[in-house]
Amino acid sequence: MSMKNLKVWSICFLTLSLSIPSIAQQPVNQLLKNLNGSLKVSVKEFNGTALLTEHIFHKNFLHTKTGSWALEVKTTSPPKQRDVIEAVAFFRLNSGVAKSTAVAVSFDFSKWNPKNYVLVPAAVYNGNRYRSIGNGYNPDYPNDMYYNPKVPLTISNNPRLSNEDGKASLIELQSGNVATPAMCFYSTIEKKGFIVLTEQLTKLGANGLTISETAKKDSCSFSVSAPAVRKMAAGFGDFHLSGDLAPDWKQGDEVELKFKVYVFNAEGIPELLKKFMEVRKSLSGLNLPRNLLPMSKTFELATNICKGNFVQVEAGSYYLPENNKDFQLGWVSGMMNTYPMLALNDKKERERVMAELDFVVTKLQGKSGYFFGGIKATGELIPEKMSPNFKPVQTMVRKNADVLLWLTKHLLLLKAQGYGASIKPEWEKAARKLATAFVRTWKKDGEFGQYIVPETGEIAVYNSTGGAIVPAGLAMASDYFKEKEWMEVAANAAKFYYKRDVEQQGLTGGHCGDISQDADAESTFGFLESLMALYYYTGQKEWLDRAEVQGALGASWVFSYDPVFPPKSAIGGLKSNMAGAIWASIQNKHAAPGICTASGDYIFKLFRATGNVLYADLIRDIQHAHSEAINMPGHITTNYLIGSSMERIQLSDAEGKGSIGNFIQTRNSWTETNGMLMALEIPGIYLNVDTKKLYVFDHVNAQVLSNNGSGMILQLQNSTQYDADVSVMAETEKEKLKPMGYTAFLSWPKVKVKAGETIQVKISSSNGITVL
Questions:
Q1: Helix and strand tally (H, E) in the chain?
Q2: Residue 130 and residue 116: Cα distance in Å, rounded?
């Protein structure tokens, strides 16, 4: 709605508002009263970033010393939905001027409980109400964090609510800091959830998202402003002056601020998370992924790069995991990029993969069974998160979880390919020894910790969800080696992490090697891997139920919409649609193309098991955002090879306003690895032959043309510049009931569709494909 020439409108509302104050705000207040909340609409005047005055609308007009304002709040509620209101607040300066002024809608809650769970997607989890250390990227741990089973969860210096009595809190963000412009909380007393969604920006700039809590912690306000005016902007574990400026207004200037509010019954944090996933696109609308690069082309280019990165150095033989010759195990590709190379079923690459496995198990496994996390090309071990006061070399628990998972996956793939005889006893012995070490640690400490000493098996740093992937690795190893006890430990550990971290704190964290115990996306998706592994091996629905909650937590880290980037930035210039990019952690304030480091096939498995299309949308978005970051002719994202990619998709000003929308001009092999894995482990097209429903993950268009007793006719269109080799997974409702195995992709037939071509194919009940 335009508000130009609205003098008559404001006069009419003047009469109405004198008799009935805030009529338009009443529906929102009616919804909020279930949480002791109310809506406040205001105009804020600033001196730089310092708030001078806040003028509150008590009616539909407002007079300040310098001008007169008009307000209209329009609300709509979907039929038969009492838990949601969508609104637009229209602001207009009818007369006068307003220097350095922003407008805001605030949701003020009295009878606030500091135990309420507060979520801002990809930025704030459980209010970030934890001990904070350092003032910069990847801070050193204080001595009290080492060998201390009672260490409190400790995060970097991030926006957070205070965990100190008698101290007020202020979290100031702008929409570029978050995966979805939203603020949420779960009320532990009222057993209700609150979600407010807004847009990325108005014509005034990025919207602001502010949470302020009183020193008594008895009231809290969630505010959306146009534009954001923060005193300090959050960096990578520190803060800097934001440089935000509120605009000057003249007579006739106007803006509209959209928001959508949900207040709903919830028994706990899991219900809030699931509701958020359900509604996260409800205001922005469905995003529009572009078909740019077929998954088969991604696989071809990335495997060619990986082939060229096999080295033989003093330490041993391996595929380079990053941008130097030192080897890093797990986390960012080491002994992960070998998996798609093994899947090539090429003799030369298979021998190279076997050489790397030899290198890993002979050079990196400690006496306890745990592995060291890295080794220099010259042969010296690389210590991790070390303190000069503690000498034993330690490494990430997460890297050891990766080793158990991926080593077992290699063994399974070799057997499925018919090369089981080539599996060396040393590899199986190493896997057994590692699994045994995890079981021993669990029995002794009741957790896996964040950092471990490979020589002794002692936990060096406790707490966090550093062991998120361990249950998956133990479950796989239990089945492979027929060790029943390992499955029991996997189940008990998964229940422990789910209850302590997901159910009670609404976060998982401490999974990245360059953060503290901050909430992060990698542990979130890693733990989903574990929950789906337990569902696969046990068939018990309880794991599927937990996986749905974890999938929702994972969605909170993923861009739900296609952000607007500065038009002169690299991403803006490419007009890239970045819905699906995944934010790294609450410390590392940027998104990345894909999961570090995995295909996310467990998200597809969750879709297949539940039929919930939101999970299919999630992994489709992730895959397509990844393609937007790949360096291709006419689509330059790195200064490196065609087919390479990089890890940073920056919408925030954490690195300065000039960094917004600009790629870091280098390559990251882990993003190339997860691209290979997605192309390998996620079908290009999924088809249920009984329901005749299909879902397309690849960069082609597909539709069902007809169906008869002998098969289904599909039409496939490839509008990209590159030939596609599309994998198809077709199954019946009965086949769908069986959880999907780890080498299922070997049985998916493929169909070639040339660039610009439209073809028809027939899919028979036996999953065979015939091009017509």
A1: 18, 38
A2: 14
Residue 314 phi, psi (nearest 5): -60, -35
Cα–Cα distance list, 532 to 344, 485, 549, 550, 608 (Å) = 26, 19, 12, 10, 12
Angstrom distance (rounded) from CA 704 to CA 698: 16
Q: Counting every residue, how long is the chain?
A: 772
Nearest to 76 by CA among 241, 282, 246: 282
Contact 346, 338 (CB under 8 A): no
Tokens for 326? 């030192």
First to last CA, the chain: 52
Residue 80's pLDDT is 83
- E strands of 645-723, at which residues? 685-688, 693-696, 701-708, 711-717
Name the 3-class secondary structure at 750.
strand
Q: Could you give the C-alpha distances from 67 to 5, 13, 21, 22, 92, in angstroms and in order? A: 17, 17, 21, 20, 10
pLDDT for 2:
44
Identity of the residue numbered 511: H
Contact status, residue 334 vs residue 326, Cβ threshold 8 Å: no
Predicted confidence (pLDDT) at residue 13 exceeds the cutoff of 50: no
Beta carbons of 420 and 414 less than 8 angstroms apart: yes
Q: CB-based contacts of 26: which residues, under 8 Å, 6+ apart?
A: none
Residues 325-363 pLDDT 10s: 999 999 998 999 999 999 999 999 999 999 999 999 999
DSSP state for residue 181 in the 8-state scheme: S
58-105 pLDDT, tens digit each = 999 999 999 999 999 999 998 888 899 999 999 999 999 999 999 999
